[in-house]
Amino acid sequence: MSRIPRIVILGAGYGGIVTALRLQKELNYNEADVTLVNKHDYHYITTHLHMPAAGTDDPQNARVSILKLIDEFKIDFVKSTVVQIRPNDKKVILEDGTLSYDYLVIGLGGEPETFGIPGLKEHAHFIRSINSVRLIREHIEYQFARFKKEPHRKDYLTFVVGGAGFTGIEFIGELADRIPKLCKEFDVDPNHVKIYNVEAAPTALPGFDPELVQYAMEVLQKKGVTFKIGIALKECTPDSITLADGEEIKTQTVIWTGGVRGNRLVEEAGFEAMRGRIKVDEYLRIPGHEDVYVIGDCSIVMNEEGRPYPPTAQMAIQQADVLAHNLVASIRNSSLKTFKYESKGTVASLGKNEAIGIAMGRKLKGGSAAMMKKIIDLRYLYIIGGIPLVLRKGYFN
Amino acid sequence: MSRIPRIVILGAGYGGIVTALRLQKELNYNEADVTLVNKHDYHYITTHLHMPAAGTDDPQNARVSILKLIDEFKIDFVKSTVVQIRPNDKKVILEDGTLSYDYLVIGLGGEPETFGIPGLKEHAHFIRSINSVRLIREHIEYQFARFKKEPHRKDYLTFVVGGAGFTGIEFIGELADRIPKLCKEFDVDPNHVKIYNVEAAPTALPGFDPELVQYAMEVLQKKGVTFKIGIALKECTPDSITLADGEEIKTQTVIWTGGVRGNRLVEEAGFEAMRGRIKVDEYLRIPGHEDVYVIGDCSIVMNEEGRPYPPTAQMAIQQADVLAHNLVASIRNSSLKTFKYESKGTVASLGKNEAIGIAMGRKLKGGSAAMMKKIIDLRYLYIIGGIPLVLRKGYFN
């Protein structure tokens, strides 16, 4: 090859940033031009967003400046929004420019899936970015302040979380912890506050060990959460929701965590996709487009039973290792690695010092699970930023 | 008198709380029954409210629990809202009960005066209580969070303060200090933020020394404030204001500080009142109702030119001394004191370390005025709570 190959990475989420860091380490000088594109100049730790959303932690602790992670001598960073991917032209159109590539990595992340439920897209909040969680936090605080002006408006203090999956449950744990503090700050009687969790599936945390799910629900019920499990959300308006059983709940605050889909840009690019997600080959490439890799929420990896794994941070980080290896191998014409997901366990937090999980083949609950959650969080900080980042963002509280 | 006389004090603002404290000190055991009625179980320091409103200080620093100030063995405290004053029955109707009195002290405070400007009452915010300033603070923060979701909505970041009197100017000083911090917190370009101050009178801070007014405006203009002086506000809608010269400013946030009137309850009680304020006699009683004293924003005291003094904290505190003396004298059948206001100076803050004022016959500006402001604040804390309160709330920042 007479020219240095150009690698473009779209998105600096888990998949994108770890891929960039691995390439930065593996590639030799002038072996490839690597460009990382991201909408913000920071990477955010999505699995941590439920805390700033509830206001139990500073959003600052859930993000890291990209330029503090990557080495700008080795990787170009472009802060821009991707508008279009043109695989046939091998180009990416940005809001303010165009990039050509020889290899493309799509790590654009997912979008909320509202399943066509009327009003949800317009009126619900979503835990998806630093901006969206700051809005949720401010929105919640604002309701307390408004209630003190209009004390007959109990609906201001009714909070509905749609979805009892991982994000929904973790957010509820934090919210339930925050409510007593908000009540104290705004002189509000805690009895006026209601938290509902609505889930269409027959259980909270589907796929989790039933004993642990039971434990989680009991912990959250004790904190004042009312569960509506096995009941679908039918409609969302600016000041209420309606459930499938006809019940109407007056509320100004719906946080929807009930679904994630892939990115519309991958559909618009003409790739074969299911809800914005692409089934990748064993090397994490798009079949028929061997120069395009997909990682994270936009990719589908099948488990041994032929069903897609849920897209998680853990999945994206593991993909990044293989993906970066395969990119380097492609450039060097050496052999590619196949990807195989290996679950290292899963822990869901339920607020301060409470969690449930499976790790190293063992069921964990309470303080030990919460400790494991902290270790997982710190491990990720270590992966992307080493000891300095652990010390800076590790919030040992 | 065969029965112990009953004194009822309505309102625990500056006038009410200082009256109660003076009575507590002066009255002998079983000389009178004193009952203090207040809507909240705390007294708030109205002249400090512009800080928590802008978010530059904690609302906690602007209030004190009433039970920490009064001695419950000497004074009964009733947390309730006054519904009606019946001077002919010598009764006060509360939301949840009735009180009979021999002597009544009306210290119910004022209400915002909107001069019939359409939409102002419905859509503007007012700096008048702990609840209202918490709402302002949350409302402002919410606009920053909303802007990040809808970056085309520049009107979210336009803040209009109506009135360039004392409260308006002091609030603007704090708001201008807070904006850079909010911009940093929410990743907002400070150039998007606009602060307008609209005042119908031909000058800001009418009645103040023109040289000091000039200084104040320059300080605030440097902090980014745009003044519209001599231009009346014509209309306020949920998302705009219109000025008398036809200019429309798109905004979600109007804070109205342009006028204060007395309390509607004194009008409804049948007393002769002007905008809810009663012209009291030289002993601070209502002419024709010698058992009813009025203090603070509900009272009118004339200056030597026959014009009413503006109602201020300083005025109310001075009234309380004379009022308490006169109550005790009435009970003891000794002679009453006449009230005469004596200005001890006035300082308006313009944000951190900036102020203007007149004290001890001298013009002050900048750091020395700010220092004087701090001394005035601390002096008041000392008056109501002694050294312990000064230490607890004196926020030496």
Automatic annotation (TrEMBL), chains A, B:
<keyword id="KW-0285">Flavoprotein</keyword>
<dbReference type="GO" id="GO:0019646">
    <property type="term" value="P:aerobic electron transport chain"/>
</dbReference>
<protein>
    <submittedName>
        <fullName>NAD(P)/FAD-dependent oxidoreductase</fullName>
    </submittedName>
</protein>
<dbReference type="InterPro" id="IPR051169">
    <property type="entry name" value="NADH-Q_oxidoreductase"/>
</dbReference>
<dbReference type="GO" id="GO:0003955">
    <property type="term" value="F:NAD(P)H dehydrogenase (quinone) activity"/>
</dbReference>
<dbReference type="InterPro" id="IPR036188">
    <property type="entry name" value="FAD/NAD-bd_sf"/>
</dbReference>
<comment type="similarity">
    <text>Belongs to the NADH dehydrogenase family.</text>
</comment>
<dbReference type="Pfam" id="PF07992">
    <property type="entry name" value="Pyr_redox_2"/>
</dbReference>
<feature type="domain" description="FAD/NAD(P)-binding">
    <location>
        <begin position="6"/>
        <end position="320"/>
    </location>
</feature>
<keyword id="KW-0560">Oxidoreductase</keyword>
<keyword id="KW-0274">FAD</keyword>
<dbReference type="InterPro" id="IPR023753">
    <property type="entry name" value="FAD/NAD-binding_dom"/>
</dbReference>
